[in-house]
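REQUEST FORM: STRUCTURE PREDICTION
Request ID: SP-0412
Submitted by: Lab K.M.
Chain count: 1
Length (residues): 196
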Amino acid sequence: MSSTRIAIFASGAGTNAQKIIDHFKNNSSVIVELVVCNKKNAGVLQIAQKENIPFIIIEKEKFINGDEYVQMLKDKKIDFLILAGFLWKLPVGLIKAFPGKIINIHPALLPKFGGKGMFGMHVHEAVIHAKEKESGISVHYVDELYDHGKIIFQAKCLVNENETPESLADKIHELEHNNFAKTIELIINLQNIVKT
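STATUS: Completed
RESULT:
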């Protein structure tokens, strides 16, 4: 069976991207083929260079209004798009081109604390402000609305009375790093079983 080729979309430091790359490094059935980024100085680009993974920096107008990038991803025979801290909303054309093949991670327990503007510290501040007793991560399929697609996997952590957004972020990062790559592998394996 041929390898499954994934593209990682990221906007920031790329810690989740690094964990995904590490997870699949010695796995010939899944290849990280491409890193897609929307910021010229994002840390994830240094990771891509260090790991010898091709990368592209996308332009907002082209990304939102055209299907140029769809064709590029198809030309590279990409099977799955993995959003690992990617902050732009995906255009409908891209979502339609990869049905059931786009996976995102969100740093809260959806459907709570999702939607436009809900990323990074904004999420953790909102969770603490709402006096939630727990938070966590949600791995989900991407559809045309922010943080709305079908949930694949969730993991939880406690929110203490003296929790700060920074301390909660540390807990969430640990959940992300321990679970995201494993969940991606599980989804790919399940979809490949269905295909055969």
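NOTES: The mean pLDDT is 93.
Reviewed by: T.R.
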